[in-house]
Design goal:
Layout (H helix, E strand, L loop, with lengths): L12 E10 L5 E10 L10 E7 L2 E7 L7 E6 L4 E11 L6 E11 L5 E6 L3 E3 L4 E8 L7 E6 L2 E6 L5 E4 L5 E11 L3 E2 L3 E8 L3 E3 L4 E5 L3 E5 L1 E3 L5 E6 L5 E2 L3 E5 L8 E9 L5 E3 L3 E16 L3 E3 L3 E11 L4 E6 L2 E6 L3 E5 L5 E10 L8 E8 L3 E5 L11 E8 L7 E4 L5 E4 L2 E4 L7 E4 L1
Parallel strand pairs: 9-16, 18-26, 27-33
Antiparallel strand pairs: 1-6, 2-5, 2-7, 3-4, 3-6, 8-10, 10-13, 11-12, 11-14, 14-15, 14-16, 17-20, 19-23, 21-22, 21-24, 24-25, 24-26, 26-28, 28-31, 29-30, 29-32, 32-33, 34-35, 35-38, 36-37, 36-39
Length: 438
Amino acid sequence: MFNARAHSSYGTNAQVYKTITIPAKDNIYMRFYYFMYSDMSKSYGSMGTLLVTAGSTNIFSKTGNQGKGWKKTDIKLTMSGSKKFTFKANKDRDPYGDIAIDDLWVAEYYKANITNVTASATEVCLNENVNLECNTYNGFPEQDEYLFYKDDQLLARGNNALKTISVKSSIAGNHTYQCSPSTDILGQAPNDTIIITTHALPTVSNPPGRVDVNEGSKVNLVCNATGTGPFTIVWNKKYSSQTWTSKNYTIESALASSDHYSKFTCTVTDANGCKRTSPETIVYVNYKPKNTNIYTSAGTICETGKIYLSCYASARPSVNEYRFILNGKVVQASSTRVINKQNTYPAGSYNWTCSPKNTVGFGLNTTKEIIIKAPPNITWISDNQTVAEGSKVIISCNVTGSDPITITWKKVGGSSSLGNGPNLTLENVTTAAIELSS
């Protein structure tokens, strides 16, 4: 290899000499790679010339910029015997140009007489990849090009570094694949063909996209297949490792679980091993309301207060009626889950029941107790009394209402308690006024 960039003067030469003995045969070739490139944005003139001679005979000549990258050339040698080969690079005015050679050989070229194309499989399913490889034998040098055809239509073009390709067919049937190798100098080697059979996929009649089933009933999914039988049918449930091998798959929904819907697919495998999977079938389990709860703002209210109840339940489909029941009587039945009203019931204990319902039926009831209390009422208190200062006096009262009742005595205008209960005893009284609160 030599490089003619070492000197930028016009007319600078670089030379390599080699004496080679050429056999007296018809197909003797010299091959080498050459590089002639200049950064033209910095060019001050033409690059120069690469000249190859055998003795006094010019056998190769290139002038000027040949572009980036190495170029290959094969030169047929028509002479024989010992010859001195000279590789001469002559610089022109371009100080940035490079001229080089590499990988030189002299050899006898002969065309390959055997071509063999092989496939990773000779029977495949529709749209399934198969690898083709093309090889030649009894030839030199390596083939420069491999043309791959499918049913006489050019499929791919490769080189000696790419003689394996991946192909697939979207049309069922027998397809003929052909490999046609060739070299630039010797031309085309023999072709070779291989037949690959592409099998159609089985046809699957899709189950319905969505199936609704009520809790306690069954649903039967059917996977029908046509094509080349016999068929193997496998049902799969999404996010489950469990499978079922059957044309018919019956879903028992006697108990609604926390997973109230599932996605199913059926995969059909025919006698050729070709598979097709159906679209997803979503099975919804409709169930009565459950997990019923009643919430209240207060478990105890006064007769003058408000009753507030809210009812919640999970269901599929959603609850469409909430029944609020008191003492066996329906107080409210509507899609509203709330009761919010002024109390009209006398003091006592009341058990409120919520019974939710959807299109499947009534769900489980739940009950909440609300205690209604009567407010305290002072029905009697001792009359005003006149007593001697320093004496003892007893004051009494009577109060009605819901237990427990707290009775507190205070002096009028005072804040501290004098005593609790229906009777107040005062010792050594002075002038005072007593008030009662309860």
